[in-house]
Design goal:
This protein has about 190 residues and is α+β, with helices and mostly antiparallel strands. Helices cover about 50% and strands about 20% of the residues. The strands form 2 sheets. A 4-stranded antiparallel beta sheet has the order 1-8-6-3, with no helix packed on it. A 4-stranded antiparallel beta sheet has the order 5-4-2-7, with no helix packed on it. The chain starts with 9 loop residues before the first strand and ends with a strand.
């Protein structure tokens, strides 16, 4: 025998990608793990609730968008009708068959309906963007949920374990040793 230091071929530090309490931490220090094996499960209840909230928001935005699209069809029909009435009133005014006020009222009505129609189109654009934001938020929540299940990246031995079941892990940077939950070393060579 001789004194020496065993250096791993590869070493992986495991940190939390989401802040949550540790629910499961099956392996212990010194345990062998295989790539893809569960090494930690975090509490996902808050993230599931956030996902449900985002999905409900998306459903609401879809409903609002469909309602706005339905309303705009009627507004477009009313606008086309008001424009036709304004054109008839203009022809009748030029022929001297209606007063200037009747023509002005018809033209003003068409302008008002056109402004309402344009406002509804803008509302639809805003709702489409809001729906896209809700979709993105859902994808973010799903990704956060996926990150509550941590698997070993490599085959190796757990050389260091810095957390226990029930502890709160916080998203951190790799250069802060306090944020590492465990280290896996590949000592196979």
């Amino acid at each position: 025998s001789a004194p020496g230091i065993v250096e791993p071929v590869q070493k992986v530090a495991i940190s939390a990608e989401v802040s949550a309490s540790i629910m499961e931490l099956p392996p212990r220090a010194g345990a062998r793990v295989r790539a893809g094996e569960l090494i930690m499960r975090l509490d996902d209840r808050d993230l599931k609730a956030a996902l449900q909230s985002a999905e409900a928001r998306r459903a609401g935005e879809r409903y609002r968008l469909e309602a706005a699209r339905s309303r705009i069809v009627g507004s477009q029909i009313n606008l086309e009708n008001a424009r036709a009435i304004a054109q008839r009133q203009e022809s009748l005014y030029r022929a001297g068959d209606v007063s200037r006020q009747s023509f002005a009222d018809a033209a003003t009505r068409a302008q008002d309906l056109e402004a309402q129609f344009l406002a509804q189109k803008n509302t639809i654009v805003q709702l489409e963007k809001s729906l896209a934001a809700a979709e993105a938020q859902i994808e973010q929540q799903r990704e956060a949920l996926r990150r509550t299940v941590v698997v070993a990246a490599i085959d190796g031995i757990i050389t260091q374990l810095n957390a226990e079941v029930g502890e709160l892990v916080v998203v951190g940077t790799m250069n802060n040793p306090g944020t590492k939950i465990m280290t896996i070393a590949d000592l196979s060579k």
